[in-house]
Structure formats: C-alpha cells, structure tokens
Amino acid sequence: MADSVPGGHVLLAKNSDRPVSDTQPLRFLPRRTAQAGATLRLAHVEIDDVEESYAHLGGSPYWCWGHEEGLNEWGVAIGNEAMFTRDWADTVSAVKGGADRDGGILGMELLRLGLERGRTAREALDVICSLVDRYGQWGSGVVGQPPVTGGYDNSFLIADAQEAWVLETSGHRWAAKQVTTGTYAISNQPTIRTEWDRASGDLVEHAVDSGWWESAPGRPFDFARAYVDPGTPLQLSHIRLQRSRQLLGEAVGAGGVGLGQAQQVLRDHYEDTFLGGPYFNAALPDFLSLCMHSHPSDFTWGNTAGSAVFVLPKRGEGLAHLWWTPVTPCTGVYVPVFVDAGRVPGIFAAAGTAGVRACPPEHAPVDTYDEGSYWWRFRRLLDIVKGGESAWTFNENQSVVRRAFDALERQWTAELPQVEKDALALRERGEHTAMADFLAGYTESCAQQALEVLEHLVAQLSG
C-alpha cells in the first residue's frame, strides 16, 4: 500500500508472503560498476548490465538475486506482488502441452533492477517497463517448483518523496497509474481498470487479438477485466485488497496514515470486522489475511516472510528509511534501518544453514534454522507462540509478545526524530562517514534490544 498526504511524508508498506521456510534476510548492496558490454546473469535469462548500479537495501528470499521490497540511496522504494494474468495462464497451458518457452525476468529481479537503475520513482518505472517490454516474465519464483507451478506475473508500487506509481504487468505488457495524493492498495490481482497514465503501445490490441476483450461502441477498455486470469479465483486476493482499502480509508478519516497505522494494517487478520477475526486464531486462518499464516491444510501458501514500512521524506525534512521486521509482523518488532548507514547488522543479512546465494529456485537447497540468522530467530519465536501445528497457545502467547515488542516500537518511534536531526547535522558538516557510523550504530542498538527481548520471550513462553 502507498500513502501520500499533503504536507506529510510518502509511506510505502509491504508484506512479503512466501513459503514457510523461504528465509528472507535484509541486505545492503553497495554501488557496483560494470564494464561496457557486460551482461548480468539472472535466474532464467541473461541481460545487458549498466555501467553503474545504485546502492540499496533489499529484503530477498535467500536464494534470489532480486528483492521483494527495497529502498535505494536516492530514496526510491519499491514493493511487488504476484499477479495471475491471461498471458501467464496461456504460457502455463502451452508449456504443459510441450511447447518451449524462453526464460524471462522474475518480478523480484525487476524490482532490484529498478532500485539499481532509478534515481526517481519515474526512472525506476521506466527501467522496469523497458525490461518487461524486451524480456517478458517467465520462470519459477518459488523454491522447489518448476515455472508452470512457481511462475507468475507481477504488480509493483514504486514511490519516492514526490510521487508514487502503480505498475501492473502481463507477460511483455503493462499499465501504470500515477498516485499523487491519498492512498492506494494492491494485492494479487490487477487494480487498474479503465484509467491509466502510461501503458504498452499494444495493450488493447493484444487483448482484442487474443479474444480477451470484445470492443463495443461506448465501452471503455478495462485492463483488469481483460487481463486477469479467470482460472485464478479472486478469493485469493480481493478480500485482502478490500480490507487494505477499508483500513486505509478509516485511517485517512481519522486524520491520516502514519507509521503506526501502516504497521497495524500490515498486522491485520480481520479483527474488528463482522468476521471477528479468524474463528480460532490467526495461526489457523480462515481466509488469506494481510498478515498471513500457514495453515495445516496448506490452503495458504505460507507465512508473511518479511514486512516493511518505507518512510520517504522530502530532502531536508528527514532521512529515507524503513521499519522492518522478519516473519509475521503480528509476532515481530519493526526496527528502523537507514540506507545512508551503508550497511545493516550482519545478523539481518544472514540466512540459515543454506546461506545466502543466487540460483534458480528449482536448485536451491531447503534452508533450516541457524542461530546466527535474525530471520530464523523470529521464525523460531513464531513457532513457540503457536505451540505446534494446531496453534493451541497462539492467542495467549501473541498478546504477551505484543506487549513486549510494542513498548520497543514506542521507544524507537520517540527517539527517531532526534536520531534523524543528529544525523542530518553530521551530513551538513560534510561528515558522511560519521553519519553512516552513527545510523548503523543506532540500528545495531535497536537490533540488540530486540534480540534481548526475544530471548526473554522464548524463555518465558517455553517454560
């Protein structure tokens, strides 16, 4: 979801839903350079590299070169969602029938390339659109699955301090809509209907030629209706999309969407609705919720693997940063992380026993617990809170976790304005190394506090 309030900061918030053991560390990637004519090998295709790629933070599945969410040194933030389209469905059908299909670029790779090559949200949009035009999207994005079961098209929220864009793609084609104020939410379905600001040149023609849209006098072309896969039930996405819209609208009506409101949206399981929340508890979900949990019957595809709120202030009004927590945000604590720090705590960037690598997901080893991984420490806490697959103890234990972690978030939220002020003062004096060290030290301090509270909770709830 994205929010832009006149006179306020742009916020972009994102939950990343992945298989239960798809470890998602948070890494800092410095600027890198490439020689003229160099190429870049991605999971399923080789593309042209560029001379200089920008530094950024990225939350990535442990096996993936690309990211589910990220923030670059210019204050551009991007999050993506899987989207199931007619182009995707036709390709799946053709491949199952024996056809060959060249690889394309994964949505997570497109996201990282946008961060590496875009100094503004609009530049990042241009980067992603040009790559979709040229290479398309095809390949597995899920560990252990081939493209026909692990592939998907993608939608993106792309924002900087000035503007935000919604980009929705289908194979080699796309439509984009600019967001200049207010709020916008996406889920795993197209949301752009009859109005957009930019699009592929043959967007309408392709749909008509494919038999997905019948032109008629006075009927405006509806991108979502034409391109959404009718074989993928919208129950997978529409309830979550509408819940996001409802919560954002309520927050706007109550004065605006701030950090706390964004975090609450990401932690939502339909509490305070006519559903009353899940029948038993969030760890035994009845529907796909915004904060997603795996179900013993596997009707959900995993857990939320990472969650972030990106804060994008105008220059001089603060520092672009994100509040990040691994695993399900309802059992996690959001820690402030600054791209200007030039690094993250080593434990943030660590996976489990498989380590961090870049390889096709079909070849990635299954990751398992390691004490040196911040992600796995929080995954272990989630398992303890649940008390087993039947999640008998989730409700009682989750309230204990929230009391402890909410206190930390309140503390850091109160401290952050002074932290930003002190960091900006160092930058104004040209002390960039000192500023980076100061910000990195602050995040390290927050991480250590979080781990101390986590270990206390583990001991308390395991007793």
From TrEMBL:
GO molecular function: cysteine-type exopeptidase activity; dipeptidase activity
Catalytic activity: an L-aminoacyl-L-amino acid + H2O = 2 an L-alpha-amino acid
Keywords of this entry: Dipeptidase, Hydrolase, Protease
Pfam family, any one: Peptidase_C69
Keyword Protease: yes
Class in the EC hierarchy, top level: hydrolase
Family: Belongs to the peptidase C69 family.
Protein name from the UniProt record: Dipeptidase
Taxon lineage: Bacteria, Bacillati, Actinomycetota, Actinomycetes, Kitasatosporales
